Amino acid sequence: QKEVEQDPGPLSVPEGAIVSLNCTYSNSAFQYFMWYRQYSRKGPELLMYTYSSGNKEDGRFTAQVDKSSKYISLFIRDSQPSDSATYLCAMSGGSGGYNKLIFGAGTRLAVHP
Amino acid sequence: EAGVAQSPRYKIIEKRQSVAFWCNPISGHATLYWYQQILGQGPKLLIQFQNNGVVDDSQLPKDRFSAERLKGVDSTLKIQPAKLEDSAVYLCASSLDIIGRDNSYNEQFFGPGTRLTVL
Asked: Which residues of chain A are within 8 Å of residue B4 when distances are taken between CB atoms?
């Protein structure tokens, strides 16, 4: 079993839709939960991070962490064609240390006009 | 602020050949990481340096991969000899500090990667 599971998609939605992206994990020691966005032929860039449980909002993006269920989500409101990318969840903490990121496989999102 | 620089951007080699990748991190960043991203997968950490010392190389295939970070700035990753399964994007990342303070996240900034194809 992988430490972090993420549905690879692809996910195709119309412009303006609400997008929900999810990851599950098995290591209860994870404390930091990140969402990275990766455009084609580019390196990942950090969108948001959450420490421990709870919600965090930044503009059109909302990250949620439910440690009791070992489940994290990223919601994108009013999705735009420019949001078309691969979204990677990542986690760290525990014996691996806070800087050792464990990534999911990434979900490919396409937002069409 | 300049980002993480990597070269070359693309490389095609035959199996059993050797190859080297170069990374220049963001100025002042003490910690440098090399990741391997196979098509359809998330990045996997190969090695982590703090300044010029190795912090974690537990997932580096040491029989064929080597990395160094001389003078605590630039870094090179080498594969010798390459295998077909080494085809991937090799990403370099850097961060300012090894330990996040006050629960703040120690953000890793990624370069554009080097796409390696082994034939």
From this structure: 43
